[in-house]
Amino acid sequence: MTSETFDVVVIGSGPGGYVGAIRAAQLGLRVAVVEKDQIGGRCLNYACIPAKAVLRSADVIQEIREAAEFGIEVGEPQVDFPKVMARRDEVVGTLTGGVGMLLKKHGIEFVEGLGSLTEQGTVSVAGRELAATRGIILACGSVRRSIPGVEFGGRVIGTEEAWALSELPKRLAVVGAGASGSEIASAYVRLGTEVQLFEGLDRVLPSEDADISKAAARVFKKTGLDVHTATFVTDVVSGDDAVTFRYGDADGSADWLAIATGRGPDVEGLGLDVAGVELDETGLIKVDELGRTTRANVFAIGDLVRGPALAHKASEEGVIAAEVIAGHSPHPLDYVDIPRATFCMPNVASFGLTEEQAKAAGHDVAVGKVPYGVAGATTVYGDRAGIVKLIGDRKYGEILGAHIVGSKATDMIQEVVNAKLLEGGYPELATMVHGHPTFSEAILEAARAADGWLIHG
């Protein structure tokens, strides 16, 4: 086994790993990145980016179907699914190629193979031993999890496979109406597939504010989704051409059954036990507020550790780990202020506390909730079916959370996040001049509603 020495070794090249590696290189450290699959990790190759590429195609066909409302007459659009998937592949190739170029630009060595920790605190990969004199960053991401009594295989697939089908299915069943399941269902139903969406809890997008979930459910059903909440899928049997199952007291069948009910940390083969890296009670790697594990100079980030399983969260944790290794003193992340984005139709975005959570925490809660229609731009663009809901503390004017459902929500949420992080409250947000006519004026009006002086309502 050949031995080589670096300042930092990163295992995993996804949004957490490659960003952490680049930040370490920027700080003057010699870095190697180990990847067992494709550069860019699951996010760029199988999850976030492929999903958004397919969802964009679904957005376009929806806009074409609604063109007559704007005085544009077109025929019924046809889906060329192989071309949809070819564009997905092109998008993935462009972005993963970009990551590869960035690693080369910063002089980072890319090592292919399954990396595992050793008792000596090095990384073993493909017959090479990589020593890290300053630190190791574990950024391996997550793996799919099934539902009780059901194994993946045949016609039972995970989210990665759902975004990589070679043919447009006629019938698709999706188990789990969180962000991933809702995105899959929303994409395929608009592309022409008959889609059933199942959720064991009592509403879709159950981690979102209740008002937002209700609004999203209305649009889901309008687009043709067959939604079943408080419903569990059982007795799954995968056949040659279809998969059968039970839901409640009914029998169901589909071309594919996609399970999107959660993921677990990808730690198999990582050598955590050998290296003395401990897990917490949930099975995630135990870390402090700056990502340090129980083994000196070994850090863990992203889906391997606590906090929301989001690519942008992993990236920031990668930056923090790199800066700690380089001797800097970065601030830890405040998970509650990390924005969440779901790219279904309608878009859903949020951060912070829901109304229910804020009340449970003992706040004197101020709520500013307005329909998209308060902003003139939404009428111009034909996208009035949305809601902006701000949650604040009445005593201090503090922003506790924001929740948006509707077009452009995933971009709009950042304004409220920024206002809070810059120590602005909803009274300040209510007096900030917004461009007209823009969708963001709905945020302005929601802040005014929270402050007690809504103009357009």
Automatic annotation (TrEMBL):
| Domain named Pyridine nucleotide-disulphide oxidoreductase dimerisation: residues | 338-447
UniProt entry keywords in alphabetical sequence: FAD, Flavoprotein, NAD, Oxidoreductase
List the record's Gene Ontology CC terms alphabetically.
cytoplasm
Residue ranges occupied by any FAD/NAD(P)-binding domain in the UniProt entry: 6-318
Fetch the Gene3D superfamilies from UniProt.
3.30.390.30, FAD/NAD(P)-binding domain
Q: Name one Pfam family in it.
A: Pyr_redox_2
**InterPro entries recorded:** Class-I_Pyr_Nuc-Dis_Oxidored, FAD/NAD-bd_sf, FAD/NAD-binding_dom, FAD/NAD-linked_Rdtase_dimer_sf, Lipoamide_DH, Pyr_nuc-diS_OxRdtase, Pyr_nucl-diS_OxRdtase_dimer
Q: What's an example Gene Ontology biological process for this entry?
A: 2-oxoglutarate metabolic process
The GO molecular function terms of this record are: dihydrolipoyl dehydrogenase (NADH) activity; flavin adenine dinucleotide binding
Swiss-Prot/TrEMBL cofactor(s): FAD
Any keyword Oxidoreductase? yes
Family matches, as PANTHER family: DIHYDROLIPOYL DEHYDROGENASE, MITOCHONDRIAL, DISULFIDE OXIDOREDUCTASE
Q: Which family does it belong to?
A: Belongs to the class-I pyridine nucleotide-disulfide oxidoreductase family.
Know the name of this protein?
Unannotated protein
Q: Which organism is it from?
A: freshwater metagenome
